[in-house]
């Protein structure tokens, strides 16, 4: 996707503070952190949102959760807890149309979210 900012981050055309990278996924610090730990985990493949997932993406999504677990361990969040959020669509607050998982931690969170 030519204009997608997260595809540009994957290609290194926009700089990011990388936290984790492998063949399938990239994780980097959110530019506007909403918590002491706020990283984004994205597939390198351009998928717009949850609505666009297909069966063939199952392995990517499963892998993202395993990567999230690894990052949570690395950033020492396992004991205290952390939250993983994917916004889908405008009303839910999705602003970047490339599916991403927010990994948030380092402070308490309220439920239900606002
Ligand atoms: P959404 O609102 O779509 O769920 O989340 C998009 C997130 O991407 C926001 O938290 C926003 O701060 C972050 N973001 C937007 N542009 C950039 C960028 O260029 N670099 C980084 N690191 N994060 C970004
Ligand atoms: Zn993209």
Characterise this structure.
The chain is of the alpha+beta class and 114 residues long. It has a single domain, classed as HIT-like (HIT family, subunit A). It contains 2 helices and 5 strands. The model has no long low-confidence stretch (mean pLDDT 97). The protein is globular. A 5-stranded antiparallel beta sheet has the order 1-2-3-5-4, covered by helices on one side. The structure holds guanosine-5'-monophosphate (5GP) and zinc ion. The site of guanosine-5'-monophosphate has 14 residues, from strand 2. Keywords: Hydrolase. This is HIT-like protein. It is an enzyme of class 3 (hydrolase).
What does this entry show, briefly?
The chain is α+β, with helices and mostly antiparallel strands and 114 residues long.
Mean pLDDT, as a whole number?
Answer: 97
Instruction: Sum up the overall morphology in one term.
Output: globular
Unreliable residue stretches:
none
Number of helices: 2
In this entry the ligands are: guanosine-5'-monophosphate, zinc ion
Radius of gyration: 14 Å
Strand order of the largest sheet: 1-2-3-5-4
How many distinct beta strands?
5
Distance between the termini: 31 Å
Helix content: 10-25%
Q: What class, by secondary structure content?
A: alpha+beta
Q: Give the tally of structural domains.
A: 1
CATH superfamily: HIT-like
**Percent range for β-strand residues:** 15-25%
Motif (Histidine triad motif): 98-102
EC number: 3.-.-.-
InterPro entries: Histidine_triad_CS (IPR019808), Histidine_triad_HIT (IPR001310), HIT-like (IPR011146), HIT-like_sf (IPR036265)
Keywords: Hydrolase
